[in-house]
Design brief:
- By secondary structure, the protein is mainly alpha-helical.
- It contains 15 helices and 2 strands.
- Strands 1-2 form a two-stranded antiparallel ribbon.
- It is rod-shaped and about 245 Å long.
Length: 581
C-alpha cells in the first residue's frame, strides 16, 4: 500500500498515503522520535475516526428525517383521504417498495393532488357556508357577518351535500318570506290607497329596504320585519274598519236628513261617493281614497250643516206630514181636529223637548196607521160611494118622471131616456146595497170595537135614516094611489050623475127619498133631513152617536112633489124595506 501511495504523487493526486509519506519525510528531516511519530499517528487515526463518526451520524439523521417525512406523507395521505371521504385515490402506489426517497417520490404526486382537492373543497364549503350564514343573517336581521370557519376534518361530498341541502331549504324559506313580505307590502299599498295615506312613508317606517326603489332581493325578510309588517297591516285594517263604520254612520245620517227634508236628487248626488258604501263590507271597499280623512270630514261638515238646516225647516216638514195625514183621513172620510193637531206640533217644536227625528217618526207611524185604517174602510167606503151615486140617480129619476115633457122629441130626450132606464136598474139595487152596507158595517164595528163614522156621522145612523125616509116615501106613494083611486071613482060617479067630467084634483106631491150628497145642499120645501157632515147648511137631526135629536128642528134637505102616477111606477110598492141598524 505504501508503494501504491508513493506512486500517487507521481500521478498528481493527493491521497492519505501521499500525505503520510510526506509526513514521514518531514519527520525524518526533523528527527522526530518513534514515540512522537506513533503518538501523532494515533492522533491522526482518532481524528479520522471522529470524521467518519460525524458523517455516519449525519447520514443517520438524514435517513431518520426521510423516514419521518415518508411517515408524515403517509399520515397526511391517510388524513386527506379521510377528510375528503375518499376510500381510494388514483395515483397512490399500491406497494411501498424501494428506497425511502423512491417511496417519497411515489407518494408525492398523489399527495399534491389531494392537497389541491382539499383546497377546492375548502373553498366550496366556505362558499356554501357563507351563503347559509348570509341567509340566516337576513332571517335574523343581522347585517354584520364573519367569514365562516370550515371544519377541515370533514370535507366529504356527503357533508357538502348536507350543506347544499340546508342552503336549498334556507333559499326556499327566503323565497317564502320574500313572498310574504311582498304580499304584506301590497296589502299596505292597497290599504294606504283606500285610506288616503302616504304609502312610502308608511312602509319605510317598517324597514327602509321596503321602498320600491330597492330591488326585490334586497328587501328585508327578517322576523322583525315580518312581525312589524303584520302589525302594520292589522293596524291599517282596524283603521279601515273604524273609518268605514264612521262613514256608514254619516251616510245613514245624511240619508235620514235628506229623506227628512226631501232633499232633491241633484244635491244628494254630490255625496254619492259617501253613500255608495253605506251597506258595503270592509273587504268590498277598494276604491282609492274612499275612506280618506278629508272625505269623512266633508261628510261630517255636511251632516252638521243639514242638522242646523233641519231645525229651521222642521215646522215646514212636520206640517207637510200633517197635511199628508189629513189628506188620508179626508179620503177615508174620517173627521179629525186638524187645528188642534197643528197647534200641538207647533208647541212640541217650540218647546224643544222632542227630537225632530222622533217627532217625524211618530208622524210617519201615524200616517202608516192611517193608511191601514183607510185600507180597512175602503170596501165599505166604495159601497157607500155606490149608494150615494145610486141615490143621486134616484133623485134625478124622480125629477125626470115628474117632467111632463120628458117624452117630447126635444134635443137630448133619447139620452135622458137611456139614463132613466139605467137609473131604474140602479135604484132597484139600492135595498140590497143598503143591506150589504149594514152587514159589513156591523161586522167592521164588531171587529174594531168602535163605531164606523162617515165624515163624523155614524154610517149605521145614516142608513137607518135613509131606510125611514124610504119607508115614508112608500107610505106616501100608497096614500097617493088611494087618493087617485078615490078621485077616479068620484069622477066616474059625477060623470054618471051629471054627464060631465070634472077637472082632476091637484095631486099631492110625494116625498122624495133623499140620499147622501157628496157636495151637501138641500132643495124642496118639506121632507125629512138626512144628516151628513157634508151638509153644513142646517141643524142635524141625528147626532154623532147615531141618536135622533127630536128637540131640534129638522132642516129639509130635499123634497119632490110627484104629480103623476108614473113617478112611482118603476118602484114596486111591495119592495122589501132595508133593515134598520
Amino acid at each position: 500500500m505504501a508503494a501504491v501511495d508513493a506512486q500517487c504523487p507521481l500521478l498528481g493526486e493527493t491521497t492519505c498515503g501521499s500525505l503520510l509519506q510526506q509526513l514521514q519525510l518531514i519527520w525524518d528531516e526533523v528527527g522526530e522520535t518513534d514515540e512522537e511519530r506513533d503518538k501523532m499517528l494515533l492522533q491522526l487515526e482518532q481524528e479520522c475516526l471522529d470524521v467518519y463518526k460525524r458523517k455516519v451520524d449525519q447520514a443517520a439523521k438524514s435517513r431518520a428525517h426521510l423516514l419521518q417525512a415518508l411517515a408524515d406523507a403517509k399520515v397526511e395521505l391517510s388524513s386527506l383521504l379521510s377528510a375528503l371521504g375518499e376510500k381510494s385515490f388514483v395515483g397512490i402506489p399500491e406497494k411501498t417498495t424501494g428506497t425511502i426517497k423512491e417511496q417519497l417520490a411515489a407518494i408525492a404526486p398523489a399527495l399534491e393532488k389531494l392537497m389541491k382537492l382539499k383546497e377546492e373543497r375548502i373553498k366550496e364549503f366556505s362558499d356554501v357556508q357563507s351563503q347559509i350564514q348570509k341567509i340566516c343573517g337576513e332571517i335574523a336581521g343581522t347585517t354584520e357577518q364573519e367569514r365562516p370557519s370550515v371544519d377541515e376534518s370533514d370535507l366529504s361530498l356527503k357533508k357538502l351535500d348536507e350543506f347544499h341541502a340546508h342552503l336549498q331549504e334556507l333559499q326556499k324559506e327566503k323565497s317564502e318570506r320574500l313572498h310574504k313580505v311582498l304580499e304584506f307590502v301590497s296589502t299596505v299599498h292597497d290599504l294606504c290607497a283606500v285610506l288616503g295615506m302616504d304609502f312610502f312613508s308608511t312602509v319605510t317606517e317598517v324597514h327602509p329596504s321596503l321602498n320600491d326603489s330597492t330591488g326585490v332581493q334586497s328587501k328585508s325578510i327578517s322576523n322583525d320585519t315580518l312581525s312589524r309588517l303584520a302589525k302594520t297591516v292589522l293596524a291599517l285594517k282596524e283603521d279601515k274598519r273604524q273609518r268605514l263604520h264612521k262613514l256608514q254612520e254619516l251616510a245613514t245620517q245624511l240619508t235620514d236628513l235628506w229623506n227628512l227634508m226631501d232633499t232633491p236628487e241633484e244635491e244628494r248626488s254630490l255625496f254619492d261617493h259617501v253613500t255608495c258604501n253605506i251597506s258595503a263590507s270592509v273587504d268590498e271597499v277598494t276604491i282609492p281614497g274612499a275612506l280618506a280623512l278629508d272625505l269623512i270630514e266633508q261628510a261630517e261638515v255636511e251632516v252638521e250643516r243639514l242638522d242646523q238646516l233641519k231645525a229651521s225647516r222642521m215646522k215646514e216638514i212636520a206640517f207637510k206630514r200633517q197635511a199628508e195625514l189629513e189628506e188620508i183621513f179626508a179620503r177615508a172620510h174620517i173627521e179629525i181636529d186638524s187645528e188642534a193637531a197643528r197647534d200641538k206640533i207647533m208647541a212640541l217644536i217650540d218647546s224643544g223637548n222632542v227630537e225632530p227625528a222622533d217627532l217625524l217618526a211618530d208622524m210617519d207611524n201615524q200616517i202608516a196607521k192611517a193608511k191601514d185604517e183607510a185600507l180597512s174602510r175602503k170596501e165599505i167606503l166604495d159601497k157607500v160611494e155606490k149608494w150615494m151615486s145610486a141615490c143621486e140617480e134616484e133623485s134625478w129619476l124622480e125629477d125626470y118622471n115628474r117632467d111632463d115633457n120628458r117624452y117630447n122629441a126635444s134635443r137630448g130626450a133619447h139620452l135622458n131616456l137611456k139614463r132613466a132606464e139605467k137609473a131604474r136598474v140602479l135604484v132597484n139595487k139600492i135595498p140590497a146595497l143598503v143591506d150589504t152596507l149594514v152587514t159589513k158595517t156591523r161586522a167592521w164595528e164588531e171587529d174594531r170595537g168602535i163605531s164606523f163614522t162617515y165624515d163624523g156621522v155614524p154610517l149605521l145612523a145614516m142608513l137607518d135614516e135613509y131606510a125611514m125616509l124610504r119607508h115614508d116615501r112608500e107610505e106616501e106613494k100608497r096614500r097617493l094611489r088611494d087618493q087617485k083611486k078615490f078621485h077616479e071613482q068620484l069622477s066616474k060617479e059625477q060623470e054618471a050623475m051629471f054627464g060631465t067630467t070634472p077637472s082632476p084634483a091637484r095631486q099631492v106631491g110625494v116625498k122624495k127619498v133623499v140620499g147622501p150628497r157628496a157636495n151637501g145642499g138641500a132643495n124642496g120645501t118639506a121632507g125629512r133631513r138626512l144628516s151628513l157632515p157634508a151638509h153644513q147648511n142646517g141643524s142635524r137631526s141625528i147626532n154623532k152617536d147615531g141618536k135622533r135629536d127630536s128637540s131640534r128642528p129638522i132642516a129639509p134637505v130635499n123634497y119632490v112633489a110627484i104629480s103623476k102616477e108614473d113617478a112611482a111606477s118603476h118602484i114596486s110598492g111591495t119592495e122589501p124595506l132595508p133593515s134598520t141598524p
